[in-house]
Protein backbone atom coordinates (compact mmCIF):
# COMPACT_ATOMS: atom_id res chain seq x y z
CA UNK A 1 0.00 0.00 0.00
CA UNK A 2 1.24 3.45 -0.90
CA UNK A 3 -1.03 6.51 -0.88
CA UNK A 4 -0.88 10.30 -0.59
CA UNK A 5 -3.68 12.03 1.29
CA UNK A 6 -4.72 15.20 3.11
CA UNK A 7 -3.91 15.39 6.84
CA UNK A 8 -7.20 17.15 7.57
CA UNK A 9 -9.34 14.63 5.69
CA UNK A 10 -7.53 11.69 7.27
CA UNK A 11 -7.92 13.15 10.76
CA UNK A 12 -11.64 13.67 10.22
CA UNK A 13 -12.11 10.11 8.94
CA UNK A 14 -10.23 8.67 11.91
CA UNK A 15 -12.44 10.64 14.30
CA UNK A 16 -15.52 9.20 12.61
CA UNK A 17 -14.56 5.52 12.65
CA UNK A 18 -12.93 5.88 16.08
CA UNK A 19 -16.41 6.15 17.59
CA UNK A 20 -16.77 2.39 17.09
CA UNK A 21 -13.65 1.52 19.12
CA UNK A 22 -14.63 0.00 22.49
CA UNK A 23 -12.78 0.63 25.75
CA UNK A 24 -12.53 -2.97 26.99
CA UNK A 25 -11.78 -4.99 23.90
CA UNK A 26 -10.81 -8.61 24.41
CA UNK A 27 -9.13 -8.89 21.00
CA UNK A 28 -6.14 -6.61 20.28
CA UNK A 29 -7.22 -6.14 16.66
CA UNK A 30 -10.45 -4.47 17.86
CA UNK A 31 -8.31 -1.55 19.09
CA UNK A 32 -7.20 -1.06 15.49
CA UNK A 33 -8.57 0.79 12.50
CA UNK A 34 -8.61 -1.00 9.15
CA UNK A 35 -6.98 0.91 6.28
CA UNK A 36 -7.60 -0.27 2.73
CA UNK A 37 -6.25 1.53 -0.34
CA UNK A 38 -8.21 0.66 -3.44
CA UNK A 39 -9.00 2.49 -6.66
CA UNK A 40 -8.79 6.18 -5.83
CA UNK A 41 -9.90 5.90 -2.23
CA UNK A 42 -8.63 5.03 1.24
CA UNK A 43 -11.28 3.07 3.12
CA UNK A 44 -11.32 3.11 6.94
CA UNK A 45 -13.29 0.84 9.27
CA UNK A 46 -13.53 0.05 12.98
CA UNK A 47 -15.77 -2.22 15.05
CA UNK A 48 -16.42 -3.45 18.57
CA UNK A 49 -18.42 -6.42 17.22
CA UNK A 50 -21.71 -4.71 18.11
CA UNK A 51 -21.41 -1.67 15.86
CA UNK A 52 -19.13 -0.98 12.91
CA UNK A 53 -18.35 2.34 11.25
CA UNK A 54 -16.88 2.70 7.77
CA UNK A 55 -15.97 5.71 5.66
CA UNK A 56 -13.56 6.70 2.91
CA UNK A 57 -11.53 9.65 1.68
CA UNK A 58 -10.27 10.47 -1.79
CA UNK A 59 -6.52 9.88 -2.09
CA UNK A 60 -3.81 9.30 -4.66
CA UNK A 61 -3.21 5.55 -4.69
CA UNK A 62 0.20 4.45 -6.01
CA UNK A 63 -0.07 0.88 -4.69
CA UNK A 64 -3.14 -0.81 -3.29
CA UNK A 65 -2.96 -2.61 0.05
CA UNK A 66 -4.56 -3.24 3.43
CA UNK A 67 -3.50 -3.20 7.11
CA UNK A 68 -4.85 -2.49 10.61
CA UNK A 69 -3.18 0.13 12.83
CA UNK A 70 -3.75 1.00 16.53
CA UNK A 71 -6.56 3.55 16.23
CA UNK A 72 -5.82 5.79 19.20
CA UNK A 73 -2.09 6.06 18.51
CA UNK A 74 -2.61 6.66 14.79
CA UNK A 75 -5.38 9.23 15.34
CA UNK A 76 -3.40 11.15 17.96
CA UNK A 77 -0.29 11.20 15.77
CA UNK A 78 -2.16 12.48 12.71
CA UNK A 79 -3.84 15.20 14.81
CA UNK A 80 -0.40 16.57 15.77
CA UNK A 81 0.68 17.04 12.15
CA UNK A 82 0.23 20.22 10.16
CA UNK A 83 -2.48 20.52 7.53
CA UNK A 84 -0.38 19.20 4.69
CA UNK A 85 0.06 16.25 2.36
CA UNK A 86 0.88 12.89 4.00
CA UNK A 87 2.38 9.76 2.45
CA UNK A 88 1.30 6.40 3.87
CA UNK A 89 3.03 3.18 2.87
CA UNK A 90 3.43 -0.39 4.12
CA UNK A 91 6.86 -1.57 5.17
CA UNK A 92 7.79 -5.14 6.16
CA UNK A 93 4.17 -6.18 5.79
CA UNK A 94 2.71 -5.00 9.11
CA UNK A 95 4.30 -1.58 9.69
CA UNK A 96 2.84 1.67 8.38
CA UNK A 97 5.24 4.43 7.36
CA UNK A 98 3.88 7.96 7.73
CA UNK A 99 5.79 10.76 6.04
CA UNK A 100 5.11 14.49 5.90
CA UNK A 101 7.34 17.50 5.25
CA UNK A 102 8.14 17.78 8.95
CA UNK A 103 8.14 14.18 10.19
CA UNK A 104 8.63 10.50 9.48
CA UNK A 105 7.41 7.71 11.71
CA UNK A 106 6.49 4.04 11.65
CA UNK A 107 3.61 2.39 13.50
CA UNK A 108 3.40 -1.37 13.88
CA UNK A 109 0.08 -2.90 12.96
CA UNK A 110 -1.75 -6.23 12.76
CA UNK A 111 -2.50 -8.12 9.57
CA UNK A 112 -5.90 -7.31 8.08
CA UNK A 113 -6.74 -11.02 7.98
CA UNK A 114 -7.30 -10.87 11.76
CA UNK A 115 -9.82 -8.01 11.49
CA UNK A 116 -13.46 -9.15 11.89
CA UNK A 117 -15.52 -9.26 8.74
CA UNK A 118 -18.09 -6.46 8.74
CA UNK A 119 -21.35 -8.05 7.58
CA UNK A 120 -23.14 -6.69 4.54
CA UNK A 121 -26.84 -7.01 5.25
CA UNK A 122 -29.41 -8.23 2.80
CA UNK A 123 -31.62 -5.16 3.03
CA UNK A 124 -35.29 -5.93 3.56
CA UNK A 125 -36.61 -2.41 4.17
CA UNK A 126 -35.29 1.09 3.45
CA UNK A 127 -36.35 4.56 4.57
CA UNK A 128 -34.85 8.03 4.22
CA UNK A 129 -34.93 10.40 7.21
CA UNK A 130 -33.88 14.08 7.35
CA UNK A 131 -30.57 14.08 9.24
CA UNK A 132 -31.34 17.12 11.40
CA UNK A 133 -34.70 15.71 12.53
CA UNK A 134 -33.29 12.26 13.28
CA UNK A 135 -30.44 13.68 15.39
CA UNK A 136 -32.83 16.03 17.19
CA UNK A 137 -35.13 13.07 17.90
CA UNK A 138 -32.22 11.05 19.28
CA UNK A 139 -31.16 13.90 21.58
CA UNK A 140 -34.71 14.26 22.91
CA UNK A 141 -35.13 10.58 23.73
CA UNK A 142 -31.82 8.85 24.37
CA UNK A 143 -31.43 10.08 27.97
CA UNK A 144 -34.53 8.14 29.06
CA UNK A 145 -33.08 4.75 28.06
CA UNK A 146 -32.54 2.22 30.82
CA UNK A 147 -29.00 1.29 31.84
CA UNK A 148 -30.19 -1.95 33.45
CA UNK A 149 -29.01 -4.84 31.28
CA UNK A 150 -31.51 -7.15 32.99
CA UNK A 151 -34.19 -5.79 30.61
CA UNK A 152 -32.42 -5.40 27.24
CA UNK A 153 -35.50 -4.05 25.43
CA UNK A 154 -35.45 -0.98 27.67
CA UNK A 155 -31.74 -0.39 26.94
CA UNK A 156 -32.57 0.62 23.39
CA UNK A 157 -34.63 2.98 21.28
CA UNK A 158 -37.95 1.84 19.88
CA UNK A 159 -37.88 2.59 16.14
CA UNK A 160 -41.28 2.45 14.48
CA UNK A 161 -42.93 3.81 11.35
CA UNK A 162 -46.58 4.80 11.03
CA UNK A 163 -47.44 6.10 7.57
CA UNK A 164 -45.41 9.29 7.01
CA UNK A 165 -44.02 9.30 10.57
CA UNK A 166 -41.00 7.74 12.24
CA UNK A 167 -41.50 7.36 15.99
CA UNK A 168 -38.58 7.07 18.42
CA UNK A 169 -39.38 6.08 22.00
CA UNK A 170 -37.35 5.26 25.12
CA UNK A 171 -38.17 4.38 28.71
CA UNK A 172 -36.52 3.13 31.89
CA UNK A 173 -39.93 2.43 33.53
CA UNK A 174 -39.78 5.71 35.50
CA UNK A 175 -39.95 8.12 32.55
CA UNK A 176 -40.66 7.95 28.85
CA UNK A 177 -39.70 10.04 25.82
CA UNK A 178 -41.34 9.91 22.41
CA UNK A 179 -40.31 11.92 19.35
CA UNK A 180 -42.22 11.84 16.07
CA UNK A 181 -40.36 12.68 12.86
CA UNK A 182 -42.18 13.63 9.67
CA UNK A 183 -41.13 11.77 6.50
CA UNK A 184 -41.44 12.94 2.90
CA UNK A 185 -43.48 9.89 1.97
CA UNK A 186 -45.18 6.95 3.63
CA UNK A 187 -42.59 4.42 4.76
CA UNK A 188 -42.56 0.66 4.82
CA UNK A 189 -43.80 -0.76 8.13
CA UNK A 190 -40.85 -1.00 10.51
CA UNK A 191 -40.76 -2.04 14.16
CA UNK A 192 -37.42 -2.70 15.87
CA UNK A 193 -35.28 -1.78 18.89
CA UNK A 194 -31.88 -0.18 18.33
CA UNK A 195 -29.22 -0.28 21.08
CA UNK A 196 -28.82 3.04 22.87
CA UNK A 197 -25.09 3.05 22.16
CA UNK A 198 -25.78 2.83 18.44
CA UNK A 199 -28.11 5.81 18.52
CA UNK A 200 -25.59 7.85 20.52
CA UNK A 201 -22.99 7.19 17.84
CA UNK A 202 -25.45 8.06 15.05
CA UNK A 203 -25.92 11.42 16.75
CA UNK A 204 -22.16 11.95 16.88
CA UNK A 205 -21.03 10.60 13.52
CA UNK A 206 -23.48 11.98 10.98
CA UNK A 207 -23.49 15.72 10.17
CA UNK A 208 -26.97 17.10 10.75
CA UNK A 209 -26.48 19.78 8.10
CA UNK A 210 -26.68 17.10 5.41
CA UNK A 211 -30.12 16.38 3.99
CA UNK A 212 -30.86 12.67 4.34
CA UNK A 213 -29.71 9.56 6.17
CA UNK A 214 -30.60 6.33 4.36
CA UNK A 215 -31.59 3.56 6.78
CA UNK A 216 -31.64 -0.10 5.74
CA UNK A 217 -32.92 -2.96 7.89
CA UNK A 218 -32.76 -6.72 7.92
CA UNK A 219 -34.21 -9.07 10.55
CA UNK A 220 -31.36 -8.51 13.02
CA UNK A 221 -29.26 -5.59 11.75
CA UNK A 222 -29.62 -1.94 10.79
CA UNK A 223 -27.41 0.27 8.60
CA UNK A 224 -27.26 4.07 8.58
CA UNK A 225 -25.67 5.57 5.45
CA UNK A 226 -24.93 9.17 4.56
CA UNK A 227 -22.41 10.42 1.98
CA UNK A 228 -20.04 7.47 2.32
CA UNK A 229 -20.28 7.15 6.11
CA UNK A 230 -21.77 3.76 7.01
CA UNK A 231 -22.73 2.64 10.52
CA UNK A 232 -23.84 -0.97 10.96
CA UNK A 233 -25.37 -2.29 14.19
CA UNK A 234 -27.12 -5.31 15.58
CA UNK A 235 -30.71 -4.95 16.77
CA UNK A 236 -32.10 -5.87 20.19
CA UNK A 237 -34.41 -8.87 20.19
CA UNK A 238 -37.75 -8.54 21.93
CA UNK A 239 -40.80 -6.30 21.96
CA UNK A 240 -40.87 -2.75 23.29
CA UNK A 241 -43.64 -2.25 25.87
CA UNK A 242 -46.90 -0.65 24.71
CA UNK A 243 -46.82 2.69 26.50
CA UNK A 244 -49.89 4.29 24.92
CA UNK A 245 -52.28 3.30 27.74
CA UNK A 246 -50.31 5.25 30.37
CA UNK A 247 -50.41 8.58 28.51
CA UNK A 248 -52.85 10.83 30.44
CA UNK A 249 -55.96 11.68 28.43
CA UNK A 250 -57.77 14.10 30.77
CA UNK A 251 -55.35 16.94 31.52
CA UNK A 252 -56.74 19.09 34.38
CA UNK A 253 -53.88 21.62 34.78
CA UNK A 254 -51.34 23.27 32.47
CA UNK A 255 -48.47 25.53 33.49
CA UNK A 256 -46.33 27.49 31.01
CA UNK A 257 -42.86 28.26 32.41
CA UNK A 258 -39.56 29.77 31.30
CA UNK A 259 -37.20 26.87 30.65
CA UNK A 260 -33.99 28.54 31.89
CA UNK A 261 -35.63 29.74 35.10
CA UNK A 262 -37.04 26.28 35.70
CA UNK A 263 -33.64 24.64 35.18
CA UNK A 264 -32.01 27.00 37.69
CA UNK A 265 -34.77 26.35 40.21
CA UNK A 266 -34.48 22.57 39.92
CA UNK A 267 -30.70 22.70 40.16
CA UNK A 268 -30.97 24.65 43.43
CA UNK A 269 -33.53 22.18 44.75
CA UNK A 270 -31.32 19.27 43.70
CA UNK A 271 -28.57 20.38 46.08
CA UNK A 272 -30.87 19.19 48.87
CA UNK A 273 -33.14 16.70 47.07
CA UNK A 274 -30.24 14.35 46.30
CA UNK A 275 -30.26 13.45 50.01
CA UNK A 276 -33.81 12.18 49.51
CA UNK A 277 -33.46 10.30 46.17
CA UNK A 278 -34.38 13.49 44.29
CA UNK A 279 -37.96 13.35 45.56
CA UNK A 280 -39.53 16.82 45.30
CA UNK A 281 -43.05 18.19 45.60
CA UNK A 282 -44.51 20.44 42.91
CA UNK A 283 -47.44 22.69 43.78
CA UNK A 284 -49.16 24.47 40.90
CA UNK A 285 -51.01 27.55 42.15
CA UNK A 286 -53.44 29.07 39.61
CA UNK A 287 -54.35 31.99 41.89
CA UNK A 288 -50.79 33.31 42.14
CA UNK A 289 -49.56 31.87 38.80
CA UNK A 290 -46.72 30.09 40.57
CA UNK A 291 -45.00 26.73 40.54
CA UNK A 292 -43.59 25.94 43.99
CA UNK A 293 -40.86 23.26 44.15
CA UNK A 294 -40.00 21.99 47.63
CA UNK A 295 -37.92 19.31 49.29
CA UNK A 296 -38.45 17.48 52.53
CA UNK A 297 -36.07 18.57 55.29
CA UNK A 298 -32.83 16.59 54.98
CA UNK A 299 -29.65 16.36 57.05
CA UNK A 300 -28.11 19.23 55.08
CA UNK A 301 -31.19 21.45 54.86
CA UNK A 302 -34.19 22.15 52.64
CA UNK A 303 -35.27 24.35 49.76
CA UNK A 304 -38.38 25.99 48.36
CA UNK A 305 -38.11 27.43 44.87
CA UNK A 306 -40.80 29.57 43.26
CA UNK A 307 -41.11 29.96 39.49
CA UNK A 308 -43.52 32.30 37.74
CA UNK A 309 -45.99 30.45 35.52
CA UNK A 310 -49.05 30.98 33.40
CA UNK A 311 -51.48 28.45 34.83
CA UNK A 312 -54.68 27.07 33.34
CA UNK A 313 -56.94 24.76 35.31
CA UNK A 314 -57.04 23.43 38.85
CA UNK A 315 -54.58 23.66 41.72
CA UNK A 316 -52.46 20.51 41.74
CA UNK A 317 -49.76 18.94 43.92
CA UNK A 318 -47.55 16.12 42.61
CA UNK A 319 -44.27 14.51 43.65
CA UNK A 320 -41.63 13.84 40.99
CA UNK A 321 -37.94 13.01 40.56
CA UNK A 322 -36.18 16.36 40.17
CA UNK A 323 -33.20 14.94 38.24
CA UNK A 324 -35.54 13.45 35.65
CA UNK A 325 -37.07 16.90 35.25
CA UNK A 326 -33.64 18.48 34.65
CA UNK A 327 -32.74 15.76 32.13
CA UNK A 328 -35.68 16.60 29.89
CA UNK A 329 -35.43 20.38 30.31
CA UNK A 330 -31.82 20.55 29.11
CA UNK A 331 -32.78 18.58 25.98
CA UNK A 332 -35.64 20.87 24.96
CA UNK A 333 -34.79 23.81 22.73
CA UNK A 334 -37.64 26.30 23.10
CA UNK A 335 -37.76 29.24 25.51
CA UNK A 336 -40.95 28.09 27.22
CA UNK A 337 -42.00 24.68 28.47
CA UNK A 338 -45.40 23.28 29.29
CA UNK A 339 -46.12 21.11 32.33
CA UNK A 340 -49.37 19.14 32.11
CA UNK A 341 -50.95 17.34 35.07
CA UNK A 342 -53.99 15.10 35.22
CA UNK A 343 -53.69 13.91 38.84
CA UNK A 344 -51.10 13.09 41.51
CA UNK A 345 -51.34 9.41 40.50
CA UNK A 346 -50.73 9.79 36.74
CA UNK A 347 -47.55 10.72 34.85
CA UNK A 348 -46.66 14.38 34.40
CA UNK A 349 -46.20 15.54 30.81
CA UNK A 350 -43.32 17.88 29.92
CA UNK A 351 -43.02 19.41 26.44
CA UNK A 352 -41.94 22.63 24.79
CA UNK A 353 -44.84 25.08 24.66
CA UNK A 354 -47.29 24.05 21.95
CA UNK A 355 -45.14 21.12 20.80
CA UNK A 356 -47.07 18.42 18.91
CA UNK A 357 -44.35 15.96 17.87
CA UNK A 358 -42.70 15.32 21.25
CA UNK A 359 -43.84 13.87 24.55
CA UNK A 360 -42.03 13.24 27.83
CA UNK A 361 -43.66 11.49 30.77
CA UNK A 362 -42.35 11.37 34.36
CA UNK A 363 -43.97 8.86 36.67
CA UNK A 364 -45.31 10.27 39.95
CA UNK A 365 -43.85 9.53 43.35
CA UNK A 366 -45.75 8.98 46.57
CA UNK A 367 -46.62 12.19 48.42
CA UNK A 368 -45.84 11.89 52.11
Give your account of this protein's structure.
By secondary structure, the protein is α+β, with helices and mostly antiparallel strands. The protein folds into three domains: 113 residues, DNA Polymerase III, subunit A, domain 2 (DNA Polymerase III, Chain A, domain 2, Roll), CATH 3.10.150; 110 residues, DNA Polymerase III, subunit A, domain 2 (DNA Polymerase III, Chain A, domain 2, Roll), CATH 3.10.150; 113 residues, DNA Polymerase III, Chain A, domain 2. The protein is 17% helix and 42% strand. It contains six helices and 25 strands. The strands form three sheets. It has a twelve-stranded antiparallel β-sheet. An eight-stranded antiparallel β-sheet has the order 6-2-3-4-17-16-15-10. The longest helix has 15 residues. The chain starts with a strand and ends in a 6-residue tail after the last strand.
Helix/strand-derived category reads alpha+beta
Distance between the ends: 70 Å
What is the fourth-level CATH superfamily of the largest domain? DNA Polymerase III, subunit A, domain 2
DSSP summary, beta strand count? 25
Helix content: 10-25%
Lateral arrangement of strands in the main beta sheet = 14-11-12-13-25-24-23-18-21-20-19-22
Number of domains as seen in the coordinates: 3
Percentage of β-strand residues: 35-45%
Note poorly predicted spans. none
Reading off the top of the CATH hierarchy, the class of the largest domain is best stated as Alpha Beta
In one word, what is the shape? elongated
Mean pLDDT: 94
Q: Total number of helical segments?
A: 6
The main sheet comes to: 12 strands, antiparallel
In CATH, the topology of the largest domain is named DNA Polymerase III, Chain A, domain 2
CATH A-level architecture of the largest domain: Roll
The value of Rg in angstroms is 25 Å
